[in-house]
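=== RUN LOG ===
request id: a7f3
mode: sequence -> structure
chains: 1
length: 186
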Amino acid sequence: MKISNLTILSLAAALLPVASIAQSIAKPSAFVGPVISGSVSASDRKFVRGAAQGGMAEVELGKLAAEKGSTDEVKKFGQRMVDDHSKAGDQLKQIASEKGITVPQQLSAKDRAIKDRLSQLSGEEFDKAYMSDMVKDHTQDVADFQRESNAGTDSDIKDFAAKTLPTLQDHLRQAKEIAPSVRASR
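=== RESULT ===
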């Protein structure tokens, strides 16, 4: 079988990109950019998306509480939610970006419904409903972050969960302290 020069050149041209890729893989320093999202487990990706979604909701509801709360205690707690969850959200977005994970950019339908419901309330009624939601949300958050910090497979995501967990535990403790005093004041 006779191979023409044109066939050899075509074959060489076709293999050039493969050789280039193989060469860049051989040199780890040549790779620049986000890690391919396939390298992060589905459970870690789910955690990141859920944590980002939940943190965004905490910020929005915290703004509402800082504005509408009828006691200084509820207003201060709301502002703490804005501050702490904004900081954690920024850290999580950075990790997500590095890992190639897309995070939600707006509230979920469930979180919008909660915000809309709370927006219709005022005074002690608002305080009671908001603090009840905070106890419920932070109970779930603590469980989710505890699970990720113990069983996560991506070290950066696992470390984020472990470092954020004490703050969430403190939020839960504080929410549990405030909630009964809001109910008792009626």
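=== NOTES ===
Confidence is low (pLDDT under 50) at residues 18-37.
The radius of gyration is 24 Å.
=== END ===
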